[in-house]
Specification:
- By secondary structure, the chain is α/β, with parallel strands linked by helices.
- The chain folds into two domains: about 15-170, NAD(P)-binding Rossmann-like Domain (Rossmann fold, 3-Layer(aba) Sandwich), CATH 3.40.50; about 180-295, no CATH class.
- The protein is about 50% helix and about 10% strand.
- The protein is built from 13 helices and eight strands.
- It has helices at about 20-30, 45-55, 65-70, 80-90, 110-115, 150-160, 175-185, 185-195, 205-225, 235-240, 240-255, 255-275, 280-295, and strands at about 15, 35-40, 60, 70-75, 95-100, 120-125, 140-145, 165-170.
- It has an eight-stranded mixed β-sheet with strand order 3-2-1-4-5-6-7-8, with helices on both faces.
- The radius of gyration is 23 Å and the shape is elongated.
- The chain starts with 12 loop residues before the first strand and ends with a helix.
């Protein structure tokens, strides 16, 4: 395998298949003083948008054109498309090819490896609601997988320059890591949706209920940041209030059998964390666990 040339801020970078993540990453790297030489998007309207936000970057429609102009290439397509994009692109030695997927191993880039390029993974633990989400990369953790120590060091520096930090991840660890990310993001949003739907008997629709729940959700996130776990957990599970929990199971099951099971499953899985506060007696713990277990088995 050919050695990489010196990697620094002046190394030409390409971002391929730039959607919300790729566009945000390209803008953030440009703002941090990195040499973003080219960005590709198959959407002409998005190319026009990128051109207004990256004045010194060549915006192109073809991934190959962008890759030809860079020593470091980020493939920021959806997970299912990354291996395909990599396999139809011609790579050269001295290039570094990096995907930004969470669950996908770096072996998805083996076509580039066979072309004598280096490969890596660089996944920001963040969600990107729009292409203008570059500010969301601050304080973010980047799961980084790279066999080449110089490439890993460059990515570690990039993470710091973007206002975040990196940590090393291995291919075998990716599924658990990504499941954790989905639990903390997509499933959390889904859980908020279920909570909002519980307001229907009050004559309040889900959208209105969600707005009313947002301050509580925000305060909970603040508590997690300020106090950590288990202190941020509140409610009947830390008090050992068996009767209240039983009434919740009845109410959630009345909403739907799936909602009832979701409440019980989440509560049972996290009960050990609530117990760490020290206010839950052994008897109450066993009573609550049995109640939740019975619901999960129905």
């Amino acid at each position: 395998m050919s050695p990489l040339p010196e990697l620094n801020k002046q190394s030409p970078i390409a971002v391929v298949a730039a959607g919300r993540l790729g566009s945000s990453l390209a803008i953030a790297m440009d703002d941090a003083g990195y040499n973003v030489a080219a960005v590709s998007s198959r959407q002409p309207d998005h190319c026009d948008w990128l051109a207004t936000h990256l004045k010194n970057t060549l915006i192109v429609e073809k991934a190959q054109t962008a890759a030809n102009l860079a020593n470091i290439v980020f493939i920021t397509a959806p997970d299912a498309s990354i291996e395909g994009i990599c396999s139809v692109t011609e790579w050269r030695s001295h290039q570094a090819v990096i995907h930004c997927a969470g669950v996908l191993p770096v072996s998805a880039l083996d076509h580039a490896l066979r072309s004598d390029a280096e490969t890596a993974g660089f996944h920001p633990l963040q969600t990107f609601p729009s292409p203008e989400s570059s500010d969301r990369l601050k304080d973010v953790s980047f799961a980084t997988e790279a066999q080449n120590p110089l490439l890993f060091e460059w990515l570690e520096t990039l993470a710091a320059d973007l206002g975040g930090s990196s940590f090393r991840i291995e291919a075998s660890q990716r599924e658990a890591y990504h499941a954790s990310a989905v639990m903390a993001c997509g499933l959390l949003a889904g859980l908020a949706g279920l909570a909002a739907e519980m307001w229907e008997p009050l004559g309040i629709d889900r959208a209105d209920a969600l707005k009313r729940l947002i301050p509580l959700l925000r305060a909970t996130v603040d508590a997690l940041e300020e106090k950590g776990l288990p202190a941020a957990i509140t409610g009947p599970f830390v008090r050992g209030d068996v009767e209240t929990i039983a009434s919740h199971i009845t109410a959630t099951s009345k909403n739907s059998a799936e909602t009832g099971r979701a409440y019980a499953a989440l509560a049972e899985a996290s009960l050990h964390i609530a117990r760490e506060q020290g206010g839950l007696s052994d008897q109450a713990f066993e009573s609550i666990k049995a109640l939740l277990s019975d619901e999960n088995q129905t």
